[in-house]
Design a protein that fits this description.
With 243 residues, the chain is of the alpha+beta class. It has helices at 48-60, 64-90, 111-127, 148-166, 168-183, 189-203, 207-219, 222-229, 232-242, and strands spanning 5-10, 13-17, 20-23, 26-29, 33-39, 93-98, 102-107, 133-137, 143-146.
């Protein structure tokens, strides 16, 4: 049977990222976690051997003062121990047991937050989502910071900026085409709407929608005007997507 050691952490902040759980000067791999549960984790039994040693010392003592002191310790120590033990049992935490038998317990004074954090952690570990990045603080009433979406939005924004830079010549020619149709005596709102939607889909890097709009350029006859205006970058892009 494994020797279990329970390490308790109060007011700690853990970070769950890339299959690891980190806090303070500690780190464990999620693959090494064999059991996770919410509740108390007081596996310590009353140290009877220590009390017996004190009793033997008291019985073998020759000084009345030392005997009285040890007997008082025998009375005070069990009371203090049971008080501490009951306090440990009443504190609800999130417990991680790893394969070596060591148990890491994280305690927060807010039981409702502890339940919320436990549901989030257990769900994350069961799905083995390596892309997630969570910070869970057990300080005070508790706090959860999910940096996953922020990173996704940042990545998406970077991709859109890159796509916009690559497609800048095409967007410029689409704007020239818009200017050409707005100067026309008979403004065709349907064509102007199509060009505007095409620009938006390019900026969003939505290739499926862009290809669909390029198809409409051909069916609505816009490709002829593109040739007359010398919009070569736009024409080549339409040909690449359609033909």
């Amino acid at each position: 049977m494994k020797n279990q050691t329970n390490l308790r952490f109060i007011n700690s902040t853990i970070t769950i990222e890339e299959n690891t759980i980190r806090w303070e000067n500690h780190m464990i791999k999620t693959a090494n976690i064999s059991h996770i549960w919410m509740g108390n984790c007081s596996d310590k039994t009353f140290p009877y051997h220590f009390v017996l040693i004190l009793l033997l010392i008291a019985l073998s003592g020759s000084s009345p003062a030392s005997i009285i002191g040890i007997l008082l310790a025998l009375i005070v120590y069990p009371i203090a121990w049971f008080y501490w033990h009951r306090k440990q049992e009443s504190s609800i935490g999130i417990n991680f047991e790893i394969s070596s038998g060591v148990i890491y317990s994280f305690v927060c004074s807010n039981e409702e937050f502890t339940l919320q954090a436990y549901d989030l952690i257990s769900n994350l570990l069961s799905k083995r989502n390596t892309a997630s990045r969570l910070q869970i603080s057990f300080l005070g009433d508790g706090k959860i910071i999910d940096n996953t979406e922020t990173e996704k939005e940042s990545s998406s924004s970077s991709q859109n900026v890159m796509a916009s830079g690559i497609n800048e010549p095409i967007i410029n020619e689409l704007q020239k085409l818009t200017l050409y149709y707005t100067k026309n005596s008979e403004i065709n709102n349907e064509i102007l709407g199509l060009i505007e939607k095409t620009i938006q889909s390019i900026n969003m890097n939505d290739k499926i929608e862009t290809k669909k709009f390029y198809g409409s350029f051909i069916t609505m006859g816009l490709i002829k005007d593109c040739n007359e205006l010398g919009l070569n970058a736009l024409i080549n892009e339409i040909r690449t997507n359609i033909y």
